TrEMBL record:
Residues 57-96 form the Conserved oligomeric complex COG6 N-terminal domain. Residues 12-30 have a biased composition (Low complexity). This is Conserved oligomeric Golgi complex subunit 6. It comes from the Eukaryota. Belongs to the COG6 family. Its main location: Golgi. GO terms for biological process: intra-Golgi vesicle-mediated transport; protein transport. Residues 1-32 are annotated as: Disordered. It is found in: Golgi apparatus membrane. Keywords: Golgi apparatus, Membrane, Protein transport, Transport. One of its GO terms (cellular component) is Golgi membrane. Required for normal Golgi function. Component of the conserved oligomeric Golgi complex which is composed of eight different subunits and is required for normal Golgi morphology and localization.
C-alpha cells in the first residue's frame, strides 16, 4: 500500500511540488495528498457501511464512462428522491387505513 502511495505521489505533479523542498511535510499539507492517502489507507473489509454503500452503488452504476461519472450525483439524488416519495406514499396509505379503522364503529 505504501508503494502505491509513493507511485501516486511520484506520478502526480500536484503532489510533487518542486518549489517546496520540505518533501513529506508538503505532501501532508496538500489537501489532494491527504485525501488520496486517506482513501488508500481505508480498510474496506472492516468498514461495513462503506461496503453496503458500494454494493448499493454497484447495483445501478454499471458503466464507468465520463457521462455516467458526471451524472452520478444527480442519479443518486433522483434515486433518493424516488425512495422518499415511495415512503411518503406508503405512509399516506397506512395513515388512511389507520383513520378508517379508528373511526369505524363496531
Amino acid at each position: 500500500m505504501a508503494e502505491l502511495r509513493a507511485d501516486v505521489a511520484a506520478d502526480s505533479p500536484s503532489l510533487n511540488n518542486s518549489s517546496n523542498n520540505s518533501g513529506v511535510a508538503s505532501q501532508s499539507n496538500n489537501p489532494l495528498s491527504r485525501k488520496l492517502n486517506k482513501i488508500l489507507e481505508t480498510r474496506l473489509d472492516n468498514d461495513k457501511e462503506m461496503l453496503e454503500a458500494l454494493k448499493a452503488l454497484s447495483a445501478f452504476f454499471t458503466e464507468n464512462s465520463l457521462r455516467t461519472r458526471r451524472n452520478l450525483r444527480g442519479d443518486i439524488e433522483r434515486r433518493s428522491l424516488a425512495i422518499n416519495e415511495e415512503f411518503v406514499q406508503v405512509f399516506k396509505e397506512v395513515k388512511e387505513v389507520s383513520f378508517v379503522v379508528k373511526n369505524k364503529r363496531f
